[in-house]
Amino acid sequence: MARKTAYKAAWLGGLLLVPQMALVLTFFYWPAGAALFWAFTLERPWGGGNDFAGFDNFLSVFNDSAYWEAVIRSFVFAFSATALAMLGALVLALFCDRQLRFFRVVRTGLIWPYAVAAPAAAVAFRFVFAPEAGIFATIVKQHPDWWNPAQNGLHAMLMIIVAYSWKYLAYNFIFFIAGLQAIPRSLIEAAAMDGAGPLLRMRTLQIPLLAPTFFFLLVINLTDSFVDSFGIIDITTGGGPSKATTLMVYKIYFDGFRGLDYSGAAAQSIVLMLLIMVLTFVQFRYIERKVHYT
After folding, report:
1. What's the CA gap between 223 and 249, in Å, rounded?
2. Cα–Cα dist 158/1, whole Å
3. CB–CB of 7/13 below 8 Å?
4. Gap between the Cα atoms of 257 and 218, Å rounded
5. Which pick of 2, 12, 55, 120 has the fewest CB atoms within 10 Å?
6. Residue 185: CB partners within 8 Å, gap ≥ 6?
7. Which ranges in the chain belong to alpha helices (H)?
8. How far is 264 from 40, CA to CA, in rounded Å?
9. Contact partners, residue 64, CB within 8 Å, separation at least 6
10. Helices 30-39/262-282 angle, 10° precision
11. Which residues make beta-bridge pairs with 43?
């Protein structure tokens, strides 16, 4: 039986925890505490401190129709981007797992996009989809109304969904290809010997065995889509046109750092955190029970 590691000096274990605890306190608990403070207080007009406001900031947020529009757009973005990123990654992983020609080169190339920072990906997609100078410019010259994300809110939303999905497609691909390679080859070979074709094996054998991976990626993708879309939105659309791409996370930034409404922005951040917690609870409560771990 393997022996557990033990430190002769009790202070050594605590010392090793100091860097991690410092990071957690600095980048999680301190900002979260500051958000709670601002959410329940209101800064005096000419400075000099904050006054307790109770739930007034939250009531002001909930009575703002623009905020509810941002909530609806956030859900549309989250579920659309998650579906596109996961389905695209699954299809690519299934094809790479069949070891078609040049599959190693393709597999390596599909992993790289996740290493690209969100602002850098946003710059690339802003150029690709720009109607004035990008690749779509030639098409726009022939059909001006066909694509114009600078003036059409639906086009702008589609652009940020595609840009975000492209980045997370690589992340999902890594887990799907790992899950497929973990399936014993003897099962695949036995199904093939029984006459099951590639599509039938995918539908009845491989995809059901990927259920735990599906659930994990669903939770991660939905959670990140609510909070990790800021960089892409800020670079590509800036929340426009006419706030058509102003999601919850971008509205927090806009109201807090541009509108200087720190209390309102803090209240919105608390609501967003609670929303993600509820959404995660629902997934674990009602979706995980349908997942079979083998």
Report:
1. 12
2. 56
3. yes
4. 31
5. 2
6. none
7. 10-24, 30-39, 56-62, 65-97, 103-111, 118-128, 137-142, 153-181, 185-193, 198-201, 207-209, 211-227, 230-236, 248-253, 262-282
8. 9
9. none
10. 120
11. 50
Q: What is the pLDDT of residues 233-242, one digit of tens each?
A: 998 888 888 8
Question: What amino acid is encoded at 53 in this protein?
Answer: A
Nearest CA among 235, 229, 225 for reference residue 250 = 229
HSE value, Cβ hemisphere, 13 Å, CA-based, for 214 = 16
- Cα angle value 93/96/99 (rounded, 5°): 150
| Distance of alpha carbon 242 from alpha carbon 68, whole angstroms | 15
Q: Which residues pair with 50 in a beta bridge?
A: 43
Digit-coded pLDDT (tens) for 162-205: 989 988 888 898 899 888 888 888 888 888 888 888 788 888 88
Nearest residue to 70 (alpha-carbon basis) of 242, 281, 219: 242
How many whole angstroms separate alpha carbon 121 and alpha carbon 115?
10
135/129 Cα distance (integer angstroms): 7
Closest CA to 246 of 58, 77, 62: 77
DSSP letter at 260?
-
Residue 260 CA to residue 250 CA, distance in Å, equals 14
Domain 64-290 has CATH 1.10.3720.10: yes
The residue behind tokens 């020609």 is 101
Chain CA centroid to CA 225, Å: 3
Residue 42: strand pairing partners? 51
Among 263, 277, 153, CA closest to 226: 277
